[in-house]
Specification:
Largest sheet: 5 strands, parallel
Radius of gyration: 15 Å
Structural class: alpha/beta
Number of strands: 5
Shape: globular
Helix content: 25-40%
Distance between the termini: 40 Å
Length: 174
């Protein structure tokens, strides 16, 4: 029916580092019948960014969170619920708090993102975040795209998304 809404999946990622990978994931989601949603943040936003992120995530069925080497833009004040976190980290924690499906993909530290010819340096806030995820996660998918041909990567990611579709994947972190 024309009223059918495609399920929306929010892709949480630091734009400067992971925009190219996010675009790949968005295309895969579209091919599987999902509507990908994301928010570009450049640290220059005015107004209540977290309110905007909450609205977007509330309208989604789940969140795919990409954890690279950089934490991205950070709110001026610590979050009342989550403390000192970046906006991208907020997206994952807020999704979890709201009981959304949450899939976390931890990028290999050697992954060269959208930043150029070398991996982004691992920043201390993101290093702590990655450790927190890896310590408490049932499902952590580590992709090191530097060592894989793109075709194999697509296969791997498609199989992950098929599991997402079939709800066989659960993921929580403390």
């Amino acid at each position: 029916s024309p009223l059918y809404m495609k399920p929306r999946i929010f892709i949480s990622a630091v734009t400067r580092e992971l925009a190219a990978l996010r675009d790949v994931i968005a295309k895969e989601l579209i091919s599987l019948g999902y509507e990908p949603v994301w928010q570009d943040l450049f640290g220059t936003e005015q107004g209540d960014v977290k309110a905007m992120l909450r609205r977007k995530i509330d309208a989604c069925q789940g969140v795919i969170h990409l954890a690279g080497n950089t934490s991205g833009s950070t709110p001026a004040e610590p979050d009342p619920d989550f403390g000192e976190i970046s906006y991208t980290q907020f997206e994952a924690l807020y999704a979890q708090k709201k009981g959304k499906k949450l899939w976390i993909i931890v990028m290999d530290e050697s992954y060269v993102g959208s930043v150029g010819s070398a991996p982004a340096p691992l920043d201390p806030m993101q290093s702590a975040w990655r450790q927190r995820i890896l310590a408490g996660n049932e499902l952590v998918v580590c992709f090191d795209l530097t060592k894989q041909v793109p075709g194999k990567y697509f296969d791997t990611f498609s199989s992950l998304l098929e599991k997402v579709k079939n709800k066989r994947v659960t993921s929580t972190f403390g």
